[in-house]
Amino acid sequence: MKRTVLILYFLSYYKVTICLRVVGVTVPALKQRGEAATLGCDFDLEGGKLYSVKWYRDNEEFYRFMPRLRPPQHAHKVDGIKVDMDKSSARRVHLKELSLKSRGLYRCEVSKEAPSFHSAQAEAFMEVNYFPRESPRVSGHERPYSPGEPLDVNCSARSFPPAELQWHIDGQKVSERSWLIPYGTQPAASQGLMVSTLGLRAPAHPLMQLSCIALMGTLRRERTVIVEINSSSTKKAFGLTVLTLLGVNIRFYDKIL
Ligand SMILES: *[C@@H]1O[C@H](CO)[C@@H](O)[C@H](O)[C@H]1NC(C)=O
Ligand SMILES: *[C@@H]1O[C@H](CO)[C@@H](O)[C@H](O)[C@H]1NC(C)=O
């Protein structure tokens, strides 16, 4: 009986000495493209010696710290990861110039020296957003409209994740659902961005101020255009049509003669 107690005591004591805990990782949950991020790995060796600290993004190792090596730090080439070695150490790693490719699950893995080589890990996700400074693009407002013809315009904005779009007419938010045409989102040509497009098909009046507002979190981009609808523009468009028809007729005549 006494011996069992002794063994149990010894086992629990032994367990404590070989134990290693990663108390936690500090990974920012959300960053903007171009910003820097400091990731922290807080561990408790409980008496032992540190063998290595390794950092992974989506299971790909990008940084390790091994006190026995000279230099102790080493960074691996991983797409979207730029480690600032001067600001990195055993307990933190500093990432420069984040891009959309930097988003992912970050894991810190800590190992102790021989003989235990015990290791522990913790992980957290970092999201990276990008909302370019450019204003949304409005199209369809520059062509002439004939009186009574409804407005038919589009607004597009590039961002990641897709931005929410709103139309405003003369300062009033359009809430009439039948006027709004959600075209959804599509991948942009570059940089991993998404393009959201919202159409507006609304009754027109002679002078309209149209604003498209793109929202992402607390960020906002806006484009305002003025649409003028008057009879002079209609006359011009009509005149052009007549001329084109005349031209066709003349050529037709030439062939017959
Ligand atoms: C608006 O966008 C949709 C989808 O891309 C397109 O089919 C439509 O022709 C566009 N309309 C205007 C007025 O630009
Ligand atoms: C509409 O009329 C105004 C003058 O009344 C003129 O300056 C403007 O150019 C016209 N707009 C178009 C699109 O023809």
From TrEMBL:
Ranges for domain Ig-like come to: 34-129, 136-226
Query: What protein name applies here?
Result: Ig-like domain-containing protein
InterPro entries this protein is in?
Answer: Ig-like_dom, Ig-like_dom_sf, Ig-like_fold
Record lineage: Eukaryota, Metazoa, Ecdysozoa, Arthropoda, Hexapoda
